[in-house]
Design goal:
With 234 residues, the protein is mainly beta. It folds into two domains: 5-164, Immunoglobulin-like (Sandwich); 171-232. It is built from one helix and 19 strands.
């Protein structure tokens, strides 16, 4: 019996994902929150063995892991932003995905209720490849006791966003001598670069969150979004 390891891959964006077992395209969905929409994902088995693939809608906290540099700015924001109940996938299980075979998964996103405030809501699609030699699907991803040709099971997540209203950013910097905390006080995700001297660091923040970056010197540091300076340290 081979030793089996479980790996988890979370994609925030790329045109496609190709990593060992599954190729998925696209790797993110962004929908208009005011109206219902349907989206197609293509999934391909890149191994030499047939597999079953389970597709689930799951919410993942932005604070997952041991990274203490991240915070959320509202206590219940993770309940507010969870899009999961508005997302349906079809089919939820691909029963037999043959080697090099491509299948389509449809994702239906309902329009958000009128009482939902303008902003960005999110969840994730979890793709779980399961060898056909296994007799049962394990909801929690555990795979102890499997006999299989694959050395690793790689679970993959891609984000699903619904944006309601026009995207606006609200950014604040807290500058310390050797660190800068970026506050995303808006209701939408934020992608930018923190530039401090010769240091350039990418920053990605979900709505209502903050992230601290270590720098050599914070004086004169700038936060840049789409080539525009939207915050600086004096």
């Amino acid at each position: 019996m081979k030793f089996l390891s479980l790996l988890f891959v979370c994609l925030l964006g790329f045109s496609h994902l190709s990593y060992a077992q599954l190729k998925i395209a696209p790797t993110r969905i962004v929908a208009q929150g005011e109206q219902a929409s349907t989206h197609k994902l293509f999934i391909e088995n890149t191994t030499s063995d047939p597999m079953r693939v389970k597709v689930s809608v799951v919410y993942r906290s932005a604070l997952a892991g041991n990274d203490k540099s991240k915070t959320r700015l509202e206590q219940d924001i993770e309940v507010q932003e969870d899009l999961s109940k508005f997302v349906k996938v079809s089919p939820p299980i691909i029963g037999n995905l043959k080697p090099n075979q491509r299948r389509t998964v449809r994702v239906r996103i309902q329009g958000l209720p009128a009482e939902y405030e303008e902003g960005e809501y999110r969840t994730y699609l979890l793709f779980q490849p399961i060898p056909l030699k296994d007799d049962k699907i394990l909801d929690d991803g555990n795979a102890q006791g499997m006999t299989m040709n694959l050395d690793f099971i790689i679970n993959t997540m891609i984000p699903v966003y619904a944006q309601k209203g026009a995207v606006e950013h609200s950014v604040r910097l807290d500058c310390k001598p050797n660190a800068v905390r970026v506050f995303n006080e808006g209701n939408y995700q934020l992608k930018g670069k923190l530039v401090a001297g010769n240091q350039v660091q990418n920053v990605f923040l979900v709505r209502d969150s903050s992230l601290e970056k270590t720098v050599t010197h914070s004086k004169g540091a700038q936060f840049v979004v789409d080539d525009q300076i939207i915050g600086s340290c004096n």
